[in-house]
Amino acid sequence: MIEYHFKIIIPFYNVEKWIQMCLKSVQLQTYKNFQCIVIDDISTDNSHNAAQAMIKNDDRFVLIKNKEKAYALKNIHDAINTASPAKNDIIVSLDGDDWFANNKVLETLNNKYNETDCWMTYGSYVEYPSGIEGKFAKQIPDYIIENRSYRESEWMTSHLRTFKHALWEKIDKNDFIFSQTNKFVKAAWDLAFVFPMLEMSGKKALYISDVLYVYNRGNPLNEDKVDHPLQLSEEQEMRNKTKYKLQETLE
Prior knowledge:
Layout: E1 6-12, H1 19-27, E2 34-40, H2 47-55, E3 61-65, H3 71-83, E4 90-93, E5 99-100, H4 105-116, E6 120-122, E7 125-128, H5 142-147, E8 161-164, H6 165-169, E9 177-178, E10 183-184, H7 189-201, E11 205-207, E12 213-216, H8 223-226, H9 228-240
Parallel strand pairs: 1-2, 1-4, 2-3, 6-11, 7-12
Antiparallel strand pairs: 4-8, 5-12, 6-8, 9-10
Helix pairs in contact: 1-2, 7-9
């Protein structure tokens, strides 16, 4: 069995109530082969100090404090560059106000990548504080995969999202840019990279029914709450972009 190396990317902004819960959920993982890049996107509360106190003696973690506001997608992009992953390393996207559902998340992922030879994974999550299982993570129907009609279909590839770095490298980063601002997508950031990955992966995209992620609906700064019209505008543009070709290999 391959022991994959995980690069966990955690961008955050004003999450002092939750950042330690988030980081603790990473530290408690039974699977130890990982590096975690934590990015403070110019928080104005005590988030940075809380994060620093949590990871100061743990050399698996790197804490970065931005000098300019970047938002989620650019933070992920820059953090991946900072982490310098190998092609076969697995990137894990975790928001700073959310956390892993249990201490075997990375162990589960490592097993899934070995058992299925997948290139990416998605699902599943529960919402906090309700405990309701998330409706935006479910198995993509075969007809959507076969027709590669992800962009025309409902969104169903939510947390937890992971992918091999080689797949990320195949995305044209110009597709991360929102035409109205000429900057990285801010609100619909996950669609910007997940649609291309799904199109390239086809049946190599694996749905995981086990709950791996806790999505915090208690944060008033959720994207859909802050600027829903922007999210809808960016989403439409991401859906209208040119589809990627199905890849036979990641080489």
